[in-house]
Specification:
This protein has helices spanning about 60-65, 70-80, 90-95, 120-145, 150-165, 170-180, 190-215, 235-245, 265-275, 280-290, 300-315, 325-335, 345-365, 370-385, 390-425, 430-435, 440. The longest helix has about 35 residues, at about 390-425. The protein contains 17 helices and no strands. It is an all-alpha fold.
Length: about 450
């Protein structure tokens, strides 16, 4: 076949067809779901391999392409072209990819401002497109159920929803979290940490949104969409985008701006925000399985998990004494890896020590306090060696929490001395004699 162009026939020979392009031409393999632009320069050679757009890709090939996406437009095209064959791995990969895409720093849902549709920036339009794609993926996720989703897939979805500041309906979240808890023995520390962090983040954002909705009912504001229809430059597409901007709550977007909520809406938001996404015994279950794998847990995994415990305790006013053993194990494992710790890792750990000791000190005695001085000394020494990398909020938080821990320790020491003093400083009968004196009998 050498020297014979593809498709030519020589005398006395049968027709030979080359199945690969000439060496001088690059191989044309368009990506999934993309239709080539018409034109001679875009047409593949006659002998090019079968185009991916002419057949459905293999599941592993589609997963690889999803993970390599670098733009929201590319991911949307993949969803549109292959939505009929998306399996749970593909859906989880797409949702996980969304917070990693660059859609500009401006988030119209979290900015608290309204923009007319004709004033939307490119970043704002991309945010609206992202929310639309996310809604479609969540609908697909809910329709599929979570039976075929692995612990890694569920954990990545929960993490992505928290990063995107999106809280879907409670039924879908409960489905995801119940699925993860049923598979937690096969979950790795990173998966457990992602679920704890995601639940804590969503809980915190949902609580803030509920508080904002309650406050909004007392401050009637002019409707931001009132002037949209009066502009001569508005178009159907612009009005559609404006409607998406105004109706942020319809997307389940935490912090989204919607119509002025009623008292009933505010009460419902407050009730939903107060309901734990994970029960306290489920949190303990996750911590127990995390402690069983501390040998493979990174320092960031431990720090994120302790931060999540602090947030959940504060939001739900839990007593965490039943998790004391797990918290102690996490603190000890963290201090064994201090050579890898940054100020951003250490600050949440000190916050956890201070908050849990303060919350449970009234009924737990010295259980939360006695373990802290040696661990706190190690943490402060590590911070002292990284003063140049500490940010102002790290310093203020650490100083506040250290002062709280010191006060608790001093108070506990005083209580011990007060309990010991009557045994050594009071003589028998002195109390009875004092109580029978005339001065004590007067009223």
């Amino acid at each position: 076949m050498s020297g014979v162009p593809g498709g030519q026939q020589l005398p006395g020979q049968q027709l030979l067809v080359s199945m690969s392009p000439p060496p001088a031409q690059p191989q044309y393999v368009p990506a999934f779901g993309i239709t080539a632009v018409s034109g001679p320069q875009q047409q593949p050679a006659a002998a090019a391999p079968l185009l991916f757009s002419q057949r459905q890709p293999l599941p592993k090939q589609l997963t690889a392409v999803i993970k390599s996406c670098t733009s929201l437009e590319r991911l949307s095209q993949l969803f549109a072209a292959h939505q009929s064959v998306l399996n749970p791995i593909h859906v989880a990969a797409m949702i996980t990819k969304l917070p990693k895409l660059d859609t500009s720093a401006h988030n119209p849902a979290a900015s608290g401002s309204y923009e007319p549709a004709w004033n939307l920036t490119t970043g704002q339009v991309q945010q609206l497109q992202l929310r639309q794609l996310l809604q479609q993926l969540l609908l697909r996720l809910k329709a599929q159920g979570c039976g075929d989703y692995s612990p890694r897939g569920v954990a990545n979805i929960v993490w992505a929803l928290a990063k995107l500041q999106c809280a879907p309906d409670h039924e879908l979240l409960s489905m995801l979290l119940d699925s993860f808890c049923s598979q937690v023995p096969s979950a790795v520390p990173q998966d457990i940490s992602n679920v704890l962090w995601g639940v804590a983040k969503i809980t915190k954002e949902r609580s803030s949104a509920a508080a904002g909705a309650t406050a909004a009912v007392q401050q009637p504001l002019a409707s931001p969409a009132a002037g949209l229809l009066s502009s001569p430059s508005s178009s159907a597409s612009a009005l559609s985008l404006a409607g998406s901007t105004v109706s942020g709550h319809s997307w389940g977007w935490v912090g989204g701006q919607g119509a002025l909520p009623s008292l009933r809406d505010a009460a419902a938001a407050g009730s939903a925000a107060s309901a734990p996404l994970l029960a306290q015994d489920q949190v303990r279950l996750l911590l127990q399985h995390l402690c069983h794998q501390l040998h493979s847990a990174s320092i960031q995994t431990i720090s994120n998990s302790l931060w999540a415990v602090v947030v959940l305790q504060q939001e739900h006013q839990w007593c965490m004494c039943n998790c004391l053993g797990e918290i102690q194990s996490l603190l000890s494992a963290f201090c064994q890896q201090l050579h890898q710790a940054l100020p951003g890792h250490i600050q949440p750990v000190i916050r956890c020590m201070a908050q849990l000791a303060t919350t449970c000190s009234n009924h737990a005695g010295d259980s939360w306090i006695r373990l802290q001085p040696p661990l706190l000394q190690q943490l402060l020494q590590c911070l002292g060696s990284q003063k140049e990398q500490m940010e102002m909020h790290h310093m203020s938080s650490v100083l506040r929490d250290v002062a709280q821990i010191v006060c608790l320790h001093l108070l506990h020491t005083k209580q011990l001395r007060d309990r010991q003093r009557p045994a050594f400083g009071t003589q028998p009968g002195s109390t009875a004699g004092a109580s029978g004196s005339p001065g004590h009998s007067r009223r």
